[in-house]
Every structure is written in structure tokens, then in C-alpha cells.
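[09:14] KT: can someone run the structure on this one? pasting the chain below
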Amino acid sequence: MISGECLYYRAPVKLVNLTPHEVMVFHSDGERYIIPPSGQIARARSEFIPDEPVSIFDSVRCEYGRVTGLPESEEGIIFIVSGLVLNVLAGSRPDCVAPDTGPSAVRDEQGNIVGVRRFLKGGEG
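[09:31] RB: done, C-alpha cells below
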């Protein structure tokens, strides 16, 4: 876990990684920070519902339900969750962020993500 003063939250915060993977963050000061998985994983339940075929192929709709494995909010703790979980939360948990795996992510020669430069915050629900 990483602790430090956070400009956004204006207080010391601890980052808790609720994904199954370590998160490497390339900070603007040139340092790399590794945030290991906490051992607890936040997941969004999903249900696949049959839908109209696409041409001659079967299709389904995926509907996401409640998030499991997400601890109650606690002052001074920011939870790192997957982008999917962050979207399902729809801004209801301002203490959750997700690694930004978009164009700003650091990639290897094969295009695989090796780290991120920033986090995504959830939109309003």
C-alpha cells in the first residue's frame, strides 16, 4: 500500500488495490510505484441474457448487477478497482478509482500495458 499527501483529497490517503493484479504507476516525478493486490477483489456481478441473433449468430446482452468485495468507505483510504467496477459504481463511491489504461498508459513493444500514468475517477451516478 502507498500512503501520501493527496492534493485532491487534501489529506493523507492510503491506496488499497482491490484488483487481482499489481498496479504500476509511472509518476510525473520519474518514480515508479508498484501497488500490490490487497488479496481482496472487487467484482461486478454479470448476467448474460439471450437476445436477437446477429445475422446467423446467437447474441446475448450483458447486464451488470451489484458490486461485491468492496469494503465500506473509510476515511483516508482510496480503493483501486477495475474500470468495469468503477463504471458500475457510476460515481456512487468517490473513494474508488481505476487505473487509466487508455492512450496515456505505458506499453511494451507488443502493446501490452506495463503501467499507468494516472487514475480514473468515477462519473456522477
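[09:33] KT: thanks! The CA atoms of residues 104 and 117 lie 6 Å apart.
[09:34] RB: yep, looked fine to me
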